[in-house]
Amino acid sequence: MTSVRGDESVRPTQRDEVAAAGSELLGGPLGRRALPGTGRLTPVRVIVLVALGMFALGMVQKLPCYNGGWFFGATSQYVHACYSDIPHLFAGRGFADGLIPYFDRLPGDMEYLEYPVLTGLFMEVASWLTPNGGEIVQREQIYWLVNAGMLMVCAAVLVVCVARTHRNRPWDGLLVALAPALALTATINWDLLAVALTAAGMLLWSRSRPLRAGVLIGLATAAKLYPVLLLGPLLVLCWRAGAWRAYGRCLTGAVASWLVVNLPVMLTHDPSGFHLREGWAKFYTFSQERPIDFGSVWLLLSQRTGNPLENANLYATLLMLLGCGGLALLTLYAPRRPRFAQLAFLVVALFILTNKVYSPQYVLWLIPLAALARPRWRDFLVWQGCEVLYYLGIWMYLAYTGSGDKHQGLPPEGYQLAILVHLLGTLYLCAVVIRDVLLPERDVVRRDGEDDPSGGVLDRAPDVFVLGRAPLPRPAVHFEGAPRVRWGAVRE
């Protein structure tokens, strides 16, 4: 890996006007003669400390609910914007009663736990660490605290992986650590487990370890469905670079690790033979049968038109397939092969924009991808501002609908505006990433002399297949202070 200037990493306070302005709170931008990372407080350690501090602030924000909002009064947890699924599902999914996920049938309509297997195991382990004695309210509080501690470890792993994925840009991990949406949504659900595993898989891919990267992507997919989408961009990128062996190893690792986790729960045996266990399949059937729900473009259209949009599944699938086809064409037509992080962000954002539901914690899926795809503070904070507004909007809307005739909160028209803000914020970030793909000289990562630091075997690899023109040679290296070389030119 070629560094930008000797062995120094990129300093955001010297390249980003927003980062420079924000650094005034801590004494101003780093000086030219400063030697960062030479003491105990290396960039990665600073980023981890900041992330843990922000995570703790997010826990403090949940304090009104911890002190009673989850348990007493239907709308208190919405008014204080501190709702979490974790304490409610402790009893609601049988963990308080010692039921085994996927094997024991639950009382009520849900019947089985509606989460993927690795997430179910995470929830089960947290229940083992929760004492059995005491009142149920106290046990739910402890269960949330145990899960919060485990999720804090996931947050630390996440920021370390992001900081190390781009070797010369460790400070990009600070975007993740300081993301307000991360602090607000980290303990709503268990998504951080899949997010951390995905980030670890991307780190290993960037280190040219495709088999190990695939193993972690498979484990992430066993915790949440969205990480499997990353195999699509990798397919097209490896196609363009001719890196079929690397892709095959990654795919093999992903399939193998997913099966290792799922097969023990997926199959059951009776005298008639092996068949799929109904409890294991609950996550997939629930996702398919679930109607349009909060935060989606489909709910916005349904509320505005009065049409229930019963075929939203079909519409969402078609839009997702069309969007993936468009991303494949973008990859094969782009003047330089897009960076892996750029396509990873775009495909997950496409899934979020077309999905039937957008829960507030889904923003966690995009935060690390956005930090790697477009490490510019202005764009990142614009998008985060939109997500924070949506976070407040959905809870105020639920307070409105749950307050009976009082209607205290945000009416439907206000919530529809919050959905629109979320959609436009995500589309804005997608637009600037696509612009970077089409105009590589605008990409802040490539302006510093990199090609694809998250690409592993793809980094500086020549093209072997493109559409509409001859393949380009290996990208030239540009060092700061040296004459700029046009992308695709051969440096003598």
TrEMBL record:
This is DUF2029 domain-containing protein. The chain crosses the membrane at residues 42-60, 142-163, 175-205, 211-239, 314-334, 340-359, 380-398, 418-438. Keywords: Cell membrane, Membrane, Transferase, Transmembrane, Transmembrane helix. It comes from the Bacteria. It is a multi-pass membrane protein. GO terms for cellular component: plasma membrane. InterPro entries: GT87, UCP010361. It is found in: Cell membrane. GO terms for molecular function: hexosyltransferase activity. Belongs to the glycosyltransferase 87 family. Its main location: membrane. It comes from Streptomyces benahoarensis. It holds the Pfam family GT87. The lineage of its organism: Bacteria, Bacillati, Actinomycetota, Actinomycetes, Kitasatosporales.
